[in-house]
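Same chain as my last thread, 347 residues:
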Amino acid sequence: FFRDTGRLAAVGLREGVRVIDVPMHREISLRADIACLVRLYRIFRRERPFIVHSNTPKGSLLAMVAAKFARVPHRLYTVTGLRYQGATGLFRAILMTMERVSCFCATKVIPEGNGVKAALYADHITKKTLQVILNGNINGIDTTYFSPEAVKKEWGENVRAEFRRSLGLTENDFAFIFIGRIVGDKGMNELAMCMRYFQEKEPRIKLILVGSFETELDPLSNGNEHFLKTSPNVVFVGRQSDVRPYLIASDALCFPSYREGFPNVVLQAGAMGLASIVTDINGCNEIIIGYKNGMVIPPHNVEILREMMEWFMHHSSEITVFSQYARGMIISRYEQKEVWKALLEEY
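reply #2:
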């Protein structure tokens, strides 16, 4: 069952381009995947594109196979994340095979970051020459839009104080923010365990939670979803079309994910002048430099995550310095127009 959200049509209208909707299952579904593959093949044969450019594991597999059979001359696959890194056993082997097929069918494989590049070689996914575009990330960050100045201009000079007040935060609270899918792979079980501790031991630490829970693919364990929705120390606001006011209302980003390609939310937080706690995984450890614009910790470790969150709260002067560096580091490395320019040169 597919539901047309209207987002693709909106993009076509905004950019002034013709779009073609091809329904696709996110997870493996043999019957639907074959139907999608056939439809893509027919579209490529009819449209005869010079370049087919894909990303995301499932979409890329189908697009690259269809484009190869349709003899599209240039088939670009941007590897934005390695799904198999979070899997085990037979499922991991299947996902690795899917990546190998996608890379084989592509004429050029573009890793989104240097961590992804290293993993593709280390895991023997491809032997093709790999080159990261600019400093990494698929789209860069619009640092004019993601800026404290832009938010204050749109929402008013007192936007931080007003938003914090509306969220029930006081001046003495230290508010972390998480933005993304609220699932196990994002480290949300560990973050929930930390917030359970802080609710009892350090109630000044708060969490602004932006995103949606996924109960089918990777649900949280041990009643953590209920806790995060009901805890007085967690402000759950659901998905938001504009996350900037929530970022400006926060004191730091906490992003304890297990695996990423090159996370946009860390770029967005940095552009808004926020220091970050991230895990030592692909992408995150390329954006955040320890003791410079944030801190990098091991994934899957509740104790270290809790200690680092407490350290952030108790070292406000260091966090202020991190925050002052954060925006400049994003502007110098990931400005969106520079990423677009580099991609255009690749085309």
